[in-house]
Amino acid sequence: MGAGQSRSSNVLVVPQANAALDQLKYEVAQELGIAIPQDGYMGNMATRDAGAIGGNITRRLVQIAEQQLAGQFK
């Protein structure tokens, strides 16, 4: 498996969202002061750091969904 490839079996419902999710990953990592390797291989990243990035991404996606739903019911 080369750099940037994932073993995840997760399939995005909207494949075009992959670029947006990657951008979000880098933004969150930067905000947390976590460096993501330039080659894209994150196998050497501390579990704590990976979890912090994933948790913050999830929190942000939930906030976006809540805002969109709140806008529908106004």
Quick synopsis:
This is Small, acid-soluble spore protein, alpha/beta type. This protein has 74 residues and is mainly alpha-helical. The protein has 2 helices and no strands.
Tell me what you see in this structure.
With 74 residues, the protein is an all-alpha fold. Helix content is 57%, strand content 0%. The chain contains two helices and no strands. It has helices at 17-32, 47-72. Helix 1 crosses helix 2 (47-72). It is globular.
Task: Name some characteristics of this structure.
2 helices, single chain, 74 residues, double-stranded DNA binding, mainly alpha, DNA-binding, SASP_alpha/beta-type, SASP_alpha/beta-type_CS
Write the layout of secondary structure elements.
Blueprint: H1 17-32, H2 47-72
Helix pairs in contact: 1-2
The amount of helix comes to 55-70%
Alpha-beta content class = mainly alpha
What global shape is seen? globular
Q: Roughly what is the average pLDDT, rounded to an integer?
A: 85
Tally of individual helices: 2
Low-confidence spans: none
The number of distinct β-strands equals 0
Strand content: under 5%
Strand and helix order = HH
Rg calculated over all Cα atoms: 14 Å
Distance between the termini: 48 Å
Largest sheet data: none
